[in-house]
Amino acid sequence: MHKNKTFKLFLKLVLVLISYGYIYYKIKVSPFDFSQFPQLQWLLVGIVLLLMPINWLLESIKWRFLIKDIEQITLSKAIKGVLVGLTSGLATPNRVGEYLGRSVVLNKSNRVKGTLATILGSLSQVLVTLLFGTVAWMFIYEDLRFDNQSYYRPLIMVGLIVLVFFYILVFYNLQWIRDLAKWMGFNQRYIDEIKYLNRFKSNQLSYILFLSFFRYVVFASQYVLIMHSFGLYINLVDSIAAIGIIYLLILIIPHFTISELGIRSSVGVLIFQFYTNQIEIVAMSAALLWFVNIALPSLIGSFLILFGAFSPKKRLDQV
Fold first, then answer.
1. What is the rounded CA–CA span in Å between residue 130 and residue 139?
2. What is the DSSP string of 232-267?
3. 213-to-5, 13, 121, 246 alpha-carbon distances in Å
């Protein structure tokens, strides 16, 4: 028993140290140099900071709704689960630890279903990102002149539309996932766990999409506000459309956690170069947005991991 406790403490420390090391490394290599921008509008930066808890509150409300038939938890406990998952994601490839990290606030018997619910929530966010990205491509694909060829642009648009319709069909027909698992020869136990997804009605799935939509609006607004805080003003419609393409590319491009910030900055520069030559501001904006939305809440999540906010010995009404 004592060895088990020691191992769990060691695992927590390793997880937190990896997360801290990753954040420290990213801050060191990121283009943060506020001395270049003496006229930085700190009021707008403050608004961006205030939007961060709204962003994760919406995600917590969504996750709590997804697991309500598995286990009834308070909103505060859902927030803790989301933050712990975020920290766990930083310490794992492709942030897969985020799915497992959230489930630690649930009873052991509910963790597989809790992980499935988390994946469903991510699927809803992917669908919203695809929808916005596809609409954005329709608006500004003529502006994105990477070369002299133009024949592929309509093909990309058609491909995106097909992909969106495919995701919508899967999202509203979750029984297909169970059928696929059965066809692939999954263990019956896991097929029975996946069957849980069939409980969600169309109106419930639409509500999940609604929350994902508002999350998207929040972090897209943060992007615009951060650029404005540095004095970079681009037509609002063009900005929103460009951000839609940026998030779409970040979604599509395969990457490891350690390269995430670099990819966010690079993709931002790649798209906004068609609207401004102040690419250093674009890179700074992407880096600062990552720090606000990922690094800061991950630091909070690390404290929750260290001090056992999700200890199974704590009763729900004590958390």
1. 14
2. ----HHHHHHHHHHHHHHHHHS---GGGHHHHHHHH
3. 41, 35, 12, 16
Quote the mean pLDDT of the chain.
81
Tell me which DSSP letter residue 31 carries: -
Is residue 132 classed as helix, strand or coil in its secondary structure?
Answer: helix
Q: How far is CA 227 from CA 31, 186, 275, 301, 303, in A?
A: 14, 48, 13, 27, 31
Q: Does the pLDDT value for residue 314 go beyond 70?
A: no
What global pTM score does this model have? 0.84
Unique residue bearing structure tokens 């690419």 = 279
Reference 74, options 297, 308, 314; nearest CA is 314
Question: Which of 24-33, 203-212, 288-297 is the most confident on average?
Answer: 203-212
Encode pLDDT of 222-265 as tens digits.
999 999 998 899 989 899 999 999 999 888 876 655 556 778 88
- Between the alpha carbon of residue 274 and those of residues 109, 214, 278, 294, the distances in Å are 52, 27, 11, 27
Tokens describing residue 88: 């766990």
Strand positions, DSSP E, 36-97:
none
* 200: phi then psi, degrees, rounded to nearest 5: -75, 125
- Using H for helix, E for strand and C for coil, what is the string for 79-147? HHHHHHHHHHHHCCHHHCHHHHHHHHHCCHHHHHHHHHHHHHHHHHHHHHHHHHHHHHHHHHCCCCCCC
DSSP state at residue 293: I
Name the nearest CA neighbour of 20 among 295, 260, 256: 295
Q: Which of 122-136, 142-156, 281-295 has the lowest mean pLDDT?
A: 142-156
Around 45, how many Cα atoms within 13 Å sit in the side-chain half-sphere?
A: 15
Q: Compute the distance between CA of residue 55 and CA of residue 292 in angstroms, rounded to an integer.
A: 11
Site of tokens 């649930």: 106
18 CB-near residues (< 8 Å, 6+ apart): 90, 91
Which of 60, 43, 38, 85 minimizes the C-alpha distance to 228?
43
